[in-house]
Every structure is written in structure tokens, then in C-alpha cells.
Design goal:
about 450 residues; alpha/beta; seven-stranded mixed sheet; five-stranded antiparallel sheet; globular
């Protein structure tokens, strides 16, 4: 990795702060010390520019420091910084609550959407779980293997993307079960094209009911429309529509965790729109406020209003400055055509990655939807040719960083490079990233 050593103090300038004060629980992706961001770029304290295709782990959909978002934050911060939701209403929050009611098509049963605002993705997942249980009177939540939903107590029980997220913290909350997510490439006879996927996820779900739990005891099934930390898995076309049918058949609420896929990331404002699926509860965070801490859930109002006053909340949920940033973020997404740009740049990037793949035998799979893209690395000479290669994955990431491109790893096997450009990225930036990745793959020995 590139390490930015502190420059000697010159002209009275203070040395950089000691980075050892940051606890090691924050695992490091880079050692860069950043001064500012501009669009798709991060600029370090010594002036080096890095193409940030991590987007702060899928957060800066409008790019770093978008002028309209910055202006909204500055204007609101000059008025009031904290207006707690139990005590007062504030205009940015009321406006955001109203806008969120229309980010999905109206419910097909003729109802209306309602929102609840909190701080982080994990908090929003907690809210969704509590709502599902109280709305149905049932105890069980069903998740999917490889899923990531957070690292709080309840969300750890749902998360199975990596052992480190939950392995040291037993006992975890009960009444949580997991079933198979369609991982097309790793299913028996793995398919590169999701249209040809033969995943038997529904057979696995049928075994879960009632081998492990009676379906009439299940309050909700939580699913990432595109799997995030678990490896950027794009499901086959029939997966979500069929899952929606199954949940309706058993009176189970469908919870779509769109923390990473939401706000234009996949080329739709929310990923469920790719399959015309209507969830009962939708979880949102990350891209909602361009980097300020904000999250929430959407649910049909008749469901949402079953949470009695005081049963859920938080001091900072729906912070007034964060709400102002979210309103500006939605303005930018709508006015500047960022959802369409995600589709176009995503298609460009995916085509470029697929053109690179034949050059490098260690690329086992190329996949993605919109600007949510991944390369899966394997040891082609071992086993069935799909043995995960996490060491190569780390080398590719490090070689890209050495060439001033930031990408992340992912996957239960940690053998996936995930690429998460800001939605403002340009065609020229995508071509630059593809050239850097080509060089990095060659240098890493892919």
C-alpha cells in the first residue's frame, strides 16, 4: 500500500497528527491522509490525487463535496445544528419525510409510504426488524447467507458475510435463520451469465420451511437486492419476484436492505425497481445524504404506524443538517441525471472489464449492475478452477492504489475486488480506471 509519511515541518507548519491514536479495530484500506475531495477524486495533504472508486464504501453518490450539497449544509449549519425529533419539527426534516414518500411507486394496494429517519444503516435495519415483528406478531427473521446488515447486536445475528463481523460475540440474538442466496458463479456448474444460472435457492428455502422454522412464525425476510459485502452478487432475474410471491403466500414481510444499492447506485433509484418488486419495508442509508450520517426505512404507513410511540428512536436520528444534505442530494440526483449516468457509465465499465477478462486467467467472474461492479479472483489451475485467491485480490488492490486508484475488496472468501464509483464519474474517468486496472492485473500476476 502507499503510505504517506509526514512531511518535515517547514515554515512553522505543524507536523501531521499521529495516526497511531486511531484504534486498530478500524481495519485499514489505505494509509492516505486526505485533505479534501472533489467529485470522483481525493487529494492528500501532500497534493497527490486519487481516483476514489470506493465512494467512502458507497456513500458519496454525488461525488465528494458537491457544491450544492455543501451549500445546503453550510446554510443549515448557520441556523441550527440540532433540533431533536421528539422536541421540535424542522423544515428540512418535514420536507425530506414528504419527499421520501414518493421515491418508490405508490403501493399497489392503494396505500401510502411513510418514512422513519435514524443515523446509520445498522440502526435502520434494527428499526425494520422491530417493525416487522410488531406488525406481524411473529418472532422470526430470515436472512441470506453472505449477507451484511450491520455490526450491532441484532444486525450481527443477521450478518454472515465474514466471520470477523460476528465470530467473537456469541451469544447472538435468537430467532434468526439463514437460507441460500443465489451465488450463480459458485453454484454447482457455475454460470457466468445470470440468465443461465441454475441456482436452487428456492429448494433451499423450501428446506428451511419447515425443517428449521415454520413459515407462519416468520415476521420478515431481509434481502439485499444485490449482495454487497458478500461479493456484489447480482441475482438471476426471477429471484426477487419469486421471493416476493413466497413472502405474500406466507404472510411474511419482505424487507429490502438497500443501504448499499440505494439512491441510484445500480442504475435505478432503488434496486428493487429493476425487477418491479414492491417490498413491505425498504432500508436506506449511505447515499442518502452524500456523507452526513443519516438513514431510515420506508414502509407502508399502515405498517409503520404500528410502532407505538416511544418504542423506537434515537437522539440524533433525522438530524437537521443531515436532512438538509439529503434534500440537496436528491436535488442533485434528479437535476443532474445521476441515475441515468450510473446506467451509462456502469455499462461502459462492465464492458471494459469483460474485455479485460480473457487476458487474465485468474479473473473467474465479472459482474455488476450500474456502478456496482466486481471482479472475482480464483486459482484457475487448482480444483475446478474456481478456488478463491484472496492473496491475488489483495495484490490487485495494492497495485491499483500504487497507481492512484482506490478500490475495495469483498466477499465471504475475500477474493472479490469491488468497484464503487461516484455517480458523477465521467466516461474519461472510467477509461482511466480501466487502464489502471489492466496495469494492476498484469503487475499482480493475474
Amino acid at each position: 500500500m502507499v503510505d504517506i509519511a509526514p512531511s518535515p515541518a517547514a515554515g512553522g507548519a505543524a507536523p501531521l497528527p499521529d495516526r497511531s491514536v486511531v484504534p486498530p479495530v478500524w481495519s485499514r484500506i489505505t494509509n492516505l491522509v486526505v485533505d479534501r475531495g472533489e467529485g470522483s477524486w481525493l487529494i492528500t495533504t501532500d497534493g497527490a490525487r486519487y481516483l476514489d472508486y470506493s465512494s467512502g464504501i458507497g456513500v458519496t453518490n454525488t461525488g465528494h463535496a458537491h457544491p450544492r450539497v455543501v451549500a445546503a449544509v453550510q446554510a443549515q449549519a448557520a441556523k441550527i445544528l440540532h433540533a431533536q425529533q421528539n422536541i421540535t419539527y424542522h423544515e428540512p426534516g418535514l420536507r425530506l419525510y414528504e419527499r421520501l414518500r414518493t421515491v418508490l411507486p405508490a403501493p399497489r394496494d392503494g396505500g401510502e409510504w411513510g418514512a422513519f429517519l435514524s443515523n446509520s444503516g445498522a440502526e435502520a435495519v434494527e428499526a425494520a426488524v422491530k417493525l416487522a415483528r410488531i406488525a406481524t406478531g411473529r418472532p422470526v427473521i430470515l436472512g441470506f447467507r453472505y449477507g451484511y446488515h450491520g455490526r450491532t447486536g441484532q444486525t450481527m445475528a443477521l450478518t454472515t458475510a465474514k466471520d470477523v463481523y460476528r465470530g467473537h460475540f456469541e451469544p447472538l440474538p435468537g430467532s434468526v435463520y439463514h437460507t441460500a442466496y443465489p451465488y450463480c458463479y459458485r453454484w454447482a456448474g457455475g454460470a457466468h451469465a445470470i440468465d443461465a444460472c441454475v441456482c436452487d435457492w428456492e429448494v433451499q428455502l423450501d428446506l428451511t420451511f419447515p425443517q428449521y422454522v415454520y413459515p407462519e412464525h416468520v415476521a420478515g425476510i431481509i434481502v439485499e437486492p444485490v449482495m454487497g459485502e458478500g461479493g456484489y452478487l447480482v441475482p438471476p432475474p426471477g429471484f426477487l419476484p419469486r421471493l416476493r410471491e413466497i413472502t405474500r403466500q406466507h404472510g411474511i414481510l419482505l424487507i429490502a436492505d438497500e443501504v448499499q444499492t440505494g439512491f441510484g447506485r445500480t442504475g435505478e433509484l432503488f434496486a428493487v425497481r429493476h425487477w418491479d418488486v414492491e417490498p413491505d419495508i425498504l432500508v436506506m442509508a449511505k447515499g442518502i445524504a452524500s456523507g452526513l450520517p443519516l438513514s431510515g426505512i420506508l414502509a407502508r404507513r399502515d405498517i409503520l404506524h404500528r410502532l407505538p410511540p416511544g418504542t423506537h428512536g434515537g437522539t440524533y436520528g433525522g438530524n437537521v443538517v443531515a436532512c438538509a444534505a439529503a434534500n440537496a442530494t436528491l436535488d442533485v440526483i434528479e437535476d443532474e441525471g445521476l441515475v441515468a449516468n450510473a446506467r451509462e457509465r456502469g455499462a461502459q465499465f462492465l464492458a471494459g472489464l469483460r474485455a479485460l477478462a480473457p487476458k487474465y486467467p485468474a479473473i473467474g467472474d465479472v459482474r455488476g449492475l450500474g456502478l456496482m461492479l466486481a471482479l472475482e479472483f480464483v486459482k484457475p489451475a487448482e480444483g475446478d478452477g474456481r478456488v478463491p485467491d484472496p492473496d491475488l485480490t489483495k495484490r490487485v488492490q495494492a497495485e491499483a492504489l500504487a497507481r492512484n486508484l482506490i478500490v475495495l475488496t469483498a466477499g465471504t472468501y475475500v477474493n472479490v475486488v469491488r468497484i464503487i464509483p461516484p455517480l458523477v464519474t465521467t466516461a474519461d474517468e472510467v477509461e482511466l480506471a480501466l487502464r489502471i486496472l489492466d496495469e494492476s492485473l498484469a503487475a499482480a500476476g493475474a
